[in-house]
Amino acid sequence: MKQSGRVLLVDDDADLLRLLSLRLEAAGYLVDKAASAEAALSALAVRRADVLLTDWRLPGMNGMDLFELVKKSYPSMPVIILTAHGTVPDAVDAVSRGVFGYLVKPFDSAALLNKVEQALQLSAPAMVVDDQNAWRAEVVSCSPLMDELLAEARLVAATDASVLIRGESGTGKEVLARALHRASPRASGPFIAVNCAAIPDNLLESELFGHEKGAFTGAAARHQGLIAQADGGTLFLDEIGDMPLALQVKLLRVLQEREVRPVGASKSLAVDVRVISATHRDLESLIGDGLFREDLFYRLNVVALQLPALSERREDIPLLSQHFLAQLCERYGKEVAGFAPDAMEYLCSLRWSGNIRQLANAVEQCCVLSTSGLIPLSLVQKAVSDGMASIPTLAEARRQFERDYLEKLLRVTAGNASVAARIADRNRTEFYRLLQKHDLVASAFKEC
């Protein structure tokens, strides 16, 4: 039996769709089916697949149009195209543009399963942990957006490349960094986290690099720095944008030479660390202002991972709320089953400018003050600021306007995406990308 993985199968031939699905399921794969590219995009918005297997010729968008959209939204997802002999040259060209591979009809089961297995190994390489999902156990999410981020994280975890995690405060950057560490070959080594903004500038150098006895006033004993403590493992530098320029130079030397010199020492010590950094700040602007070194930025930003704000993954709010509540009930010895329906609806409607950290604080206050088995709406309202949800961010306002505009356009055109795209003055591919961004399916408006 093959390793379980999820395959999204796209073909407008119902009989072939059923046959291929049976073959894949018999080999141990989970299979989602779609009869068109548009249906496939809707399916991906609900649940991410590990591999996309699509016919070239489809009604509406063809397989290559689908690939182009998938590549933008799910860059780590391998795509296999099924093609007839007449489109082989096109398929070969598609491979040069990033398609994982193609199968020429008719093909046998062995060729199909072999190609899917190769693609699955690319999208979900063997990890050093027994349970393939244990590495991400602390990441509480059912969001397709987070699934794609974690797929990228899993790929980069297998390497020693430096990673820069970007995202707003409270989005869980350290949680993601720990998951990367657990998924890496360094999982058995130490994970050392340093908040560069929380340690005073005059102490940060000593904490990071260590010092010898007598190196400065108050250095009564030799101190091993955090970089040396991370030897053989992972060093996580949170809020890297707040590191003083003088220390940035020394950190760059560590990354370049793989050695660290403690304060007051006459020689350097070799270190073997993988560096993951994180920031909520615009490092490019800091570089322009002379506050962050460009050469260090390129050393740290080998791979960039962008954590979405909680407002971009609202489907995770009920999951996170219940997760925090269960932890808090155990800590405080309370028996609270959950949130009243209107209370949960209210939680999901809020903007959460402080993201997951703010949600956790609100849930804790609700848990502490709760006197019943279900947390009521009034307690949730008390736990959050009264004006938090009244004014959306500019990005949220633009996003809501865009969705309202698209919905109105599709209603007016009765779901005719081609006509709607012309009215919006967008090409068809770009228009479908907009629809996917807002989880809209044009065909659903034909009955409106």
UniProtKB/TrEMBL annotation:
Residues 6-120 form the Response regulatory domain. Keywords: ATP-binding, Kinase, Nucleotide-binding, Phosphoprotein, Transferase. GO terms for molecular function: ATP binding; kinase activity. Transmembrane segments: none annotated. GO terms for biological process: phosphorelay signal transduction system; regulation of DNA-templated transcription. Residues 139-368 form the Sigma-54 factor interaction domain. CDD domains: AAA (cd00009). The modification 4-aspartylphosphate is found at residue 55. Pfam families: AAA_lid_14, Response_reg, Sigma54_activat. InterPro entries: AAA+_ATPase, AAA_lid_NorR, CheY-like_superfamily, Homeodomain-like_sf, P-loop_NTPase, Sig_transdc_resp-reg_receiver, Sigma_54_int, Sigma_54_int_dom_ATP-bd_1. PANTHER family: TRANSCRIPTIONAL REGULATORY PROTEIN (PTHR32071), TRANSCRIPTIONAL REGULATORY PROTEIN GLRR (PTHR32071:SF116). This is Putative sensory histidine kinase YfhA.
